[in-house]
Each structure stands twice: as C-alpha cells, then as structure tokens.
Amino acid sequence: MTAAIIDGKAFADGLRARLADFVADFVAKAGRKPGLAVVLVGEDPASAVYVRSKGKATEAAGMASFTYRMPADTSQEALLAKVAELNADPAVDGILVQLPLPKGLREDEVIAAIDPDKDVDGFHPINAGRLASGLPGLVPCTPLGSLMLLKDRLGSLSGLDAVVIGRSNIVGKPMAQLLLAESCTVTIAHSRTKNLPEVVKRADIVVAAVGRPEMVKGDWIKPGATVIDVGINRVDAAEPGKTKLVGDVDYAEALEVAGAITPVPGGVGPMTIAVLLRNAVVAAYRREGLEEPAGL
Ligand code: NAD
Q1: Are residues 232 and 275 in the same domain?
Q2: Most buried residue among 27, 41, 292, 295 by CB atoms closer than 10 A?
Q3: Is residue 12 part of a domain?
C-alpha cells in the first residue's frame, strides 16, 4: 500500500484564499481591517524569519500587521507594558508574542497577561480551559490546522482511535482535546509511555508531536491509519555540509503502511500561519460583536 499524501500547503493556500473574502466582509461591516500584532524580543534568527513571514502573510490577507521588535535585554516589566498597550489598542484584534523568549523573561506570565480574546496563539490558560470545557475560545494554531487536515481527509472522526504522541501545551494537549471534542477515543503518549510502538499500533489516527527525527517507524503504524506528522527536525543530509528537514515519523517507511500521511515539509507547517490569520479574523468578528460567518 502507498499512502495518500495530505497536501497541507494546498489546503493552507485554499484557507488563505477563503480568508481574503472574510476579511473583505469584515472591512465592509466594521469599517476597519482586522489587526494582528506580533512582538519579537531579541535577535534569534529563526524567530526573526517567522515574524517576517507572519507579517507578510498578514498583509497579503488584507489585514493590518503591526510588528514590534524589542531588544534582547528587555525587562519583564517593559514586555508586560507592551502587552498591556496592545490589549488596550482597539486596532489590534490579535496579539502574538514570539516564543521562545530570551533567558530571564518569564513566558508564562507574559502569556497570562495577554487579553484572552486577543490571544490568537490560544496559549492563555483561559483559552486552554475553554477548549477543555467545550466553550468558544481561541485554539492553538498547529493542532487546529492538524484537525482541519484530518477532517478534510476523513470526514467524521467519531469513534476513531487516536494516539497523540507528545503532551506539550502548544501541540499535544490541545490536539488531544480537539480530537476528544470530535468524539475520538484519545490516548496521549509521551516520554514515559511504556510500549509506545504497541500503543501507536492501535490508532486509526496518529499525531506525532515529539521533536525526535523519524522516531515513529513504519511497523508501529496500523495499516491504513492516517498519520499527522507535526515534527520539524533539521538533520544532516546525504550531501556533506547540507541539512534537510524531517518529521517525527519515518516517512519512507510510513508511506508503505499508512492510508494517508502529511509530508515534512509541506504538511502541517503551512497550516500554522494560515490558522493564525484565521484566528485573528475570528477574534476581530467577536470583538466587534459581529456574527462569525459560516465556514470561518
Ligand atoms: P515539546 O518539546 O514541548 O514536547 C515534546 C513532547 O514529546 C513532550 O511532551 C514529551 O513527553 C514527548 N516526548 C519526548 N520524547 C519522547 C519519546 N521518546 N517518546 C514519546 N514521547 C516523547 O515540543 P512541541 O512544542 O510540542 O513540538 C513538537 C514537535 O513539533 C517539534 O519537532 C516542533 O518543532 C514541532 N512543531 C511544529 C509546528 C508546526 O508548525 N508544524 C508547530 C509547533 C511545533
């Protein structure tokens, strides 16, 4: 069997095209653009690349983009003051503080300072609680994007066995909550899980969010299962001095067993920014007291 390849890039492009229509609808009703503010503290090159591409994508979607660069020696107080300023700014619907923060800054406190209704990353404890309680809130982008790909591929997920490998607040835990809300039977596996290959073998849906290159082997996967590979790992390529990106799943092996699989790159990765924009538009409609359009 050769698995179908789930094209996250094509799906994300479609989502961004649909978003442009929702943005136009919002502008017509609210008389302003939805606004997304991104705060970058320090000079981490990878973070700088992410922030630039988020800014470009925001503008391409017809939204207002606000980027704030703060030096690496920014104090906790100065960063909290910036968050408070953005919380109070009526033109800002979404606030994202790029993580990781430089050493010495307390991420939890910064996340908790963001207005939960502007928390487009969905990391605020209030949004985590809303997700766990089945209340409307803002949901972390990577797991929500992964769920969109799963529903597009499988339709109803009700009754399926899902195994999520990884229990981070950013990916694993919210992914498990989303799958539970879709009536899957959910297992969360992690670094202390015993007999991981056997646990994974039960799953109709496998979501790997570990950060270990090609850890999940082909013979761990139930034939026909749908595999979502969230991992992004840079490893040495065959050519000396070159590197490449691989996921947490051994893609070549999994391709022979799974029913469908996301590639790395080109699977979950492109969904994350598209869902970030979507969350900002959702936040904008709610903040204006406007009804969210169907399909957003
Ligand atoms: P994390 O380091 O916070 O969490 C990793 C999880 O994996 C932990 O819960 C840990 O218990 C589990 N784990 C570690 N070793 C294990 C093992 N041997 N067996 C089973 N479980 C094990 O990482 P994260 O932030 O959740 O990210 C996970 C991966 O997803 C990383 O590769 C990251 O780069 C990637 N990621 C991708 C996107 C995207 O846009 N596609 C977004 C966020 C994260």
Answers
A1: no
A2: 41
A3: no
